[in-house]
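Quick one, tokens below:
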């Protein structure tokens, strides 16, 4: 059965969205094309009409995951617009975020996998990371009147590392301690 162009475009977006979530949950190599397409409600044969390769999909899904993460920061700051940095800290360094394997931060979920991928996947992450740094730089400027790229890098590194460490331990008290320690450090760095 022939699919219309608009349906094909919609199917492509569905596959990218599903892959974005499933890659975060299972890693780039943790899920095959058959299961990815099944998750999108499509056949494996439809994949090759939409994408050049799994690497092509990985790059596009990575871009979508980073866009989703940036959007989640925007939602968090809209709820607490008087202190956007505190809003991001509260959202990002939380046990709720720690538990979000499919919708959480793609840097945490896929960072080490992305480092082993091709240039297109890395470019998707790099673009998203630069956007995160730009947002944090604006928040720092709003907090203490200065804009420091290095400070934004340190804050993002601390937050990503804390969530990663909190996810790799079974002890929930230790996981919370990582998040709490990072929260204190990020607040101190932002004020300094």
């Amino acid at each position: 059965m022939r699919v219309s162009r608009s349906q094909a475009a919609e199917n492509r977006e569905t596959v990218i969205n599903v892959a974005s979530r499933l890659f975060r949950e299972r890693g780039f190599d943790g899920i095959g094309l058959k299961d990815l397409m099944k998750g999108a409600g499509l056949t494996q044969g439809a994949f090759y009409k939409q994408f050049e390769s799994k690497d092509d999909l990985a790059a596009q899904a990575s871009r979508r995951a980073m866009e989703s993460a940036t959007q989640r920061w925007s939602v968090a700051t809209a709820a607490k617009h008087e202190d956007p940095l505190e809003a991001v800290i509260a959202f990002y360094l939380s046990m709720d975020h720690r538990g979000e394997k499919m919708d959480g931060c793609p840097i945490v979920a896929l960072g080490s996998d992305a480092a082993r991928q091709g240039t297109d996947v890395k470019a998707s992450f790099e673009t998203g990371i630069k956007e995160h740094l730009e947002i944090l730089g604006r928040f720092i400027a709003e907090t203490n009147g200065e804009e420091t790229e290095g400070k934004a890098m340190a804050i993002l590194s601390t937050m990503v590392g804390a969530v990663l460490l909190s996810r790799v331990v079974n002890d929930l008290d230790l996981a919370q301690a990582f998040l709490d320690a990072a929260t204190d450090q990020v607040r101190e760095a932002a004020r300094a």
